[in-house]
Amino acid sequence: MKRYLQRYRAMFAQLVIGAILGILLLHPLTTLVFYLEFNDLLAAPTDNAWSFLVNRLQTSALQELVPMSAVFALLGAVLGLVISFYNRVIETEQRRVRWLERELNVHLPSLIATGESERLELKSTLRWNLREKRSDKTLEKVIAKSLAGLMNHRGGSLIIGVSDAGETLGINADCQTLKHKNADGFERALMDLVRSTLGAHACALIHCQFPLLDETPVCWLVVEQAKTPVFVQDGKVARYMVRTGNSTRELDAREVFAHVAQRESDAES
Length: 269
Known about the structure:
Number of strands: 11
Oligomer: single chain
Number of helices: 9
CATH topology of the largest domain: Methyltransferase, Cobalt-precorrin-4 Transmethylase, Domain 2
Largest sheet: 4 strands, mixed
Strand content: 15-25%
Radius of gyration: 29 Å
Strand order of the largest sheet: 1-4-8-5
């Protein structure tokens, strides 16, 4: 609530400033343009633009000019609100860029060495079943749930090709199960998975890299926090996952309501 009050105060201030500038700047400028275009056609033309402008400003408070001043005040207020909205968008994008820069500048081996946490999850493969030595697409659902858990929490990193113990396995086995057996094919398959299970909007929250660990390629996904809840479509069931500690778990309906309310409260504070 405090954050919203501050936002509304800032918007009101921008509106008032815009209205004032509309009267003090837009009105005189429009008057000046009018002088340059139509002074010769006036019944009593003035000698210069300054005299004309001063005369108009001195009479701008008269009753017959109040509607015109109100129009310029409204135009200025609208312009102020547009600028306020634009500034908010820019600030949000700058915060997002700074967050991504911090995440991407982390030394990956050092990050893995810290072990799994609420902002880091390690997965051995995308779809390759290590025990049965075959492709197993049911494993992809685990990846989708892990991504949703990070999005519904505070964001973080998901690294595919590294075991829970920190052992580098790589993504080569996964790539051999794909039509395009390279990093591009891996990323395409991953984004198709996200699109089909989490929704197309979730793809924009994932930033994919393929660094080398021990000369073996792994997939490093930097995941942004979602502004709205992200659900995993599992057949006809939509599941709400969240990262808690070093694991991802599904919340029941009551927990989902509480978690979403807490997210909104944190966003306002």
